[in-house]
Amino acid sequence: xxxxxxxxxxxxxxxxxxxxxxxxxxxxxxxxxxxxxxxxxxxxxxxxxxxxxxxxxxxxxxxxxxxxxxxxxxxxxxxxxxxxxxxxxxxxxxxxxxxxxxxxxxxxxxxxxxxxxxxxxxxxxxxxxxxxxxxxxxxxxxxxxxxxxxxxxxxxxxxxxxxxxxxxxxxxxxxxxxxxxxxxxxxxxxxxxxxxxxxxxxxxxxxxxxxxxxxxxxxxxxxxxxxxxxxxxxxxxxxxxxxxxxxxxxxxxxxxxxxxxxxxxxxxxxxxxxxxxxxxxxxxxxxxxxxxxxxxxxxxxxxxxxxxxxxxxxxxxxxxxxxxxxxxxxxxxxxxxxxxxxxxxxxxxxxxxx
Length: 354
Fold this sequence. Notes:
Layout (H helix, E strand, L loop, with lengths): L3 H7 L12 E5 L8 E6 L6 E3 L2 E2 L1 H14 L8 E4 L9 H11 L6 E3 L3 H4 L5 H7 L4 E5 L2 E5 L7 H6 L4 H9 L13 H11 L8 E5 L5 E3 L4 E2 L3 H8 L5 E5 L7 E4 L2 E5 L40 E8 L2 E8 L5 E6 L4 E4 L16
Organism: Tahibacter soli
InterPro entries: Calcineurin-like_PHP, Metallo-depent_PP-like, STPP_CPPED1, TAT_signal
Protein name: Metallophosphoesterase
């Protein structure tokens, strides 16, 4: 197992020692002088307790990610925040999260998560950070930032007696009273018009909080109009979708569209067993789920380096207290594969005792 120093050197990066809950992305081109880097931080879930008190674990995760992002070398061109800055969308949580993010030394682009949105439907978020969806261009790459956590109007506007209850219902990961996420017709039309101005050979990077796939509806790792979104992106030669929300390592390739998740600065899904032993302010998990490896409680937090080239992602994971992993596109099979665990005989089966 390579240590962190060897790993960083082999990746051509120099940074602080220690595990960091952020994603460092390198966009690679045929001409090295066109390459650039950006950092991606997501899912901090800043939670207000009372007065000036906030849940310390979530605070410290974001503080550390910001501090170590500022020390990255080579320096990122910018930072993207992938959503769920707050836990229950309150002014106190969003203000505190914005204050922590203000320490970043780089321009920061913000995406919205459901925990930021469903208390006041993004009203205070807009005052702090601006538009809910937008696009920008950087060094020949077209970036699209979406609000992918919308849902049906009846659920949003007619079902709940108070905004606080609406927020609480959507905050539960496996709550049957929740509702599937979607991008929605209005935003899809905007995206169609936005992409109409972009050459099909232009690399596209899409930032969405929820996966633009249908992974697991029970936990709302799901976007209801995923197929419609994929159809809009399909004509482009190279599309990379970066998403948060799942607090797990996930990867997929559909045609020219590469999907990969960013890990959280707060906690991994599903919860480690030790989290159930203390009053941790976590949302209640009503459906237990086995972890791939129950002996490493933070096996979905740590460093993740992504090399994006022609839509084919190489993901290098240096995990906190766990084995390093590489997920790379295999041209023989036409899909990304885990270099260590892809073979069925090498997989870690769920542990029945956890």
